[in-house]
Amino acid sequence: MASAKYIFVTGGVTSSLGKGIISASLAKLLQARGFSVTIQKFDPYINIDPGTLNPYEHGECFVTDDGAETDLDLGHYERFLNTPTSQANNVTTGRIYNHVITQERQGAYLGKTVQVVPHITDEIKRRMLLLGQTGEFDVVITEIGGCVGDIESLPFIEAVRQLRWELSPTDSMVIHLTLLPYLKAAGELKTKPTQHSVRALSEAGVQPDVLVCRSEYPIPAEMRKKIALFCNVAPNAVIESLDAETIYDVPLLMKKEKLDERAMKKLKLTSRQDINLDSWKEFLGRLKNPTEEVKIALVGKYVELPDAYKSIIEAFIHAGAFNECKVHLKFIQSEQISFENVSSHLQHMDGVLVAPGFGERGFEGKLEAIRYVRESGIPFFGICLGMQCAAVEFARNVLGWTDAASTEMNPTTSYPVIDMMEEQKQVTQKGGTMRLGSYECDLKRGSKAYQAYGKGHIQERHRHRYEFNNKYLEAFQEAGMIASGINPTTGLVEVVELQNHPWFVGAQYHPELKSTVLSPHPLFVRFIKAAITHTKNRNK
Ligand code: GLN
């Protein structure tokens, strides 16, 4: 078995430079050349995983098929590569320490002092190599979260240093992402922060092979030479990364800058095929030349930070491109929606999505939004909490059970139409304890969900504690809200839809987590189609 090649991606100067997108873009280019590639992210924080973080803190929590709660960059990896990731693709400092400390209690290091070096760094190295040892991948790209120079990322950088020493020189490389700030007053790009950040990395014993420099302006040739000289890299190893119109342009921009060729040269890889980005380019063509446009409201409580809904936003981009339709997303804070103002918020919308979420804040506003679209025939898509809200709204306003609720919001309601799952009632621990990951679902023939997927059996990803209360299912179905998707083993309601409505679908699972550039999610595709029809009818 040939061993995998390892590419480490570090970042300096500031965070938010887009290491995830650069990693995913390089991976895409290598994949297009016939290599099998995976990307993993090592995050320096102490949480075992981002599952317990507030979305305001860290953006969306991305859930994998195997039920791992992970960093949102894994979403980018999947959307670019069209291949699933797993728990092994996301490791935090907390997870490393947890493992080492558990081992220590089990006597694994009996008699020894357990230390950051070598015990923590050994465990980091073990995990960095893990996916490469499965034989599944030619290339493993490891993105190191945070910035070089941060106290907390030191053990990761030290692990990279050791691995570079241990692996053959052609089996690993380091790409360092930095920023060239533009000083308006001086009218210049500045290289000093890049020099300092490369120096910090070198002081830790890691010399980068390639620098990817984020810049708002093209980098003059002379400046590239200067950066190369002072940062000790080959002149053609200074790669320019300009702001892109869309993140999906970045693979092509990186190809133009020959990032993939630099990597292949360093790792002594020869392309397995002529680079094939046909379907990627086709997607970009449709994305950039829309023939339709729709306005979609995204109703949620974390709307101030769009990263909280990253996968939903991207799923709209995929589904929009598929339909050659420009999707204008309008974020609406659900707390601001009331009976009095709902029509002014939503009457011009072609579709309304009610987002996933937790807790009471903004719940009533979501119900108002749903009542409005149910009554006015605007296409509706509810995801997870959004689906649960649709059930509560229907119970209150159609079935007339005025105090119906989810027990998450009102534990003493007389109509708990959404209730905590039985298996969740015993759970006290937080983090990794919800119903997580991929589960089966059977779809009802003839339903909108069935039409969208074009098949009757699907698997989708979950992250929830509450579920539709089957005690009330019959009443719901008789009144026109049907369960069109059911888990075949447990009977849990996975999809609800309204029969006398142009398009009203709620999913207990998270379809957005499986939407990729090459496989846009069928429910998003159909929702956009319904929105296009709605706008046409409105303008007749
Ligand atoms: N809070 C709801 C539950 O736990 C919905 C979760 C979600 O939207 N992801 O069931």
List the helices and strands and how they pair.
Blueprint: E1 5-11, H1 19-32, E2 37-43, H2 55-58, E3 62-63, E4 69-70, H3 73-81, E5 90-92, H4 93-105, H5 116-130, E6 139-144, H6 154-166, E7 172-180, E8 182-183, E9 188-189, H7 192-203, E10 210-215, H8 221-231, E11 238-242, H9 250-256, H10 259-267, H11 278-288, E12 292-300, H12 310-322, E13 325-333, H13 342-346, E14 351-354, H14 363-376, E15 380-383, H15 385-397, E16 405-406, E17 416-420, E18 435-443, H16 448-453, E19 457-464, E20 466-468, H17 473-479, E21 481-486, E22 493-498, E23 504-507, H18 522-538
Parallel strand pairs: 1-6, 1-7, 2-5, 2-6, 7-10, 10-11, 12-13, 12-14, 14-15, 15-23, 16-17
Antiparallel strand pairs: 3-4, 8-9, 17-20, 18-19, 18-21, 21-22, 22-23
Bound molecules: glutamine.
Glutamine binds near residues 356 and 463.
Give descriptors for this structure.
binds glutamine, nine-stranded mixed beta sheet, 23 strands, alpha/beta
Protein architecture, described:
The protein is built from 18 helices and 23 strands. The mean pLDDT is 96. It has 540 residues and is of the alpha/beta class. The protein starts with a strand and ends with a helix. The longest helix is centred in the C-terminal third of the chain and has 17 residues. The protein binds glutamine (GLN). This is CTP synthase.
Quaternary status of these chains?
single chain
Task: Provide a count of the helices.
Answer: 18
Q: How much is the average pLDDT?
A: 96
* Rg for CA atoms: 25 Å
Q: What's the main sheet like?
A: 9 strands, mixed
The proportion of residues in beta strands is: 15-25%
Question: In terms of structural class, how would the helical and strand content be classed?
Answer: alpha/beta
The level of helicity is 25-40%
The poorly predicted ranges are none
In angstroms, what separates the terminal alpha carbons? 63 Å
Overall geometry comes to globular
Strand order of the largest sheet: 13-12-14-15-23-22-21-18-19
Q: Which ligands does the model contain, each kind named once?
A: glutamine
Number of E-state strands? 23
